[in-house]
């Protein structure tokens, strides 16, 4: 009798879990406010856009793979010291970095409207301008989302790169000297929207 009850509870749990699983494709787009760490460059404003697939596994957890395109970098008027010839230069710098981005977001829903997002990112560089751009960038991203009653979500995220992405002299340490061992990583604040579409026949 106990075995039958345990089996019944097990099957009920499987049925309940499967009934909660849904998949919704969608998109996300917005504005990037990006900079490069260990540089004197200012924040650069650009955009991102991409496709998402929201796989809701439980009421509180959604796994969301994403693929997108992101324009980042930094810009500004910069004075730097060239240690090779002992002279200081000033120039206007616009570092444009472009990536195809792959992100795996883990979304935790606290209420029907508010969710917390965190996950790893893997970006492939597609363009080089005014700097040597590395082939790839690895990083982590985290943020918050607020879903409106009609399904559109407002999102804010911070993405921090972990890889030195450019080989540059666009920085100094305050003393006017140039060092080759600085690590210039991406730091991006994103504000935008996302929207997912109901798939016909999916369970709610």
Order of helices and strands: HEEEEEEEEEE
Ranges where pLDDT stays below 50 over 5 or more residues in a row are: 2-12, 14-18, 172-179
The CATH architecture can be given as: Beta Barrel
**What coarse outline follows from CA principal-axis ratios?**
elongated
Overall structural domain count = 1
The biggest sheet, with number of strands, parallel, antiparallel or mixed sense and barrel status, is:
8 strands, antiparallel, barrel
CATH class: Mainly Beta
Distance between the termini: 34 Å
Please report the total strand number as a whole number: 10
Strand content: over 45%
Mean pLDDT score: 82
What does this structure look like?
- The chain has 204 residues and is mainly beta.
- The chain has a single domain, classed as Porin (Beta Barrel), CATH 2.40.160.
- Helix content is 9%, strand content 60%.
- The protein has an 8-stranded antiparallel β-barrel with strand order 1-2-3-4-5-7-8-10.
Q: How is this structure best summarized?
A:
It contains 1 helix and 10 strands, in the order αββββββββββ.
Write the layout of secondary structure elements.
Elements: H1 2-20, E1 22-36, E2 44-56, E3 61-82, E4 87-109, E5 114-127, E6 132-133, E7 136-147, E8 153-161, E9 166-167, E10 186-196
For this entry, give a set of tags:
eight-stranded antiparallel beta barrel; 204 residues; disordered N terminus; 9% helix; mainly beta; two-stranded antiparallel ribbon; Porin; 1 helix
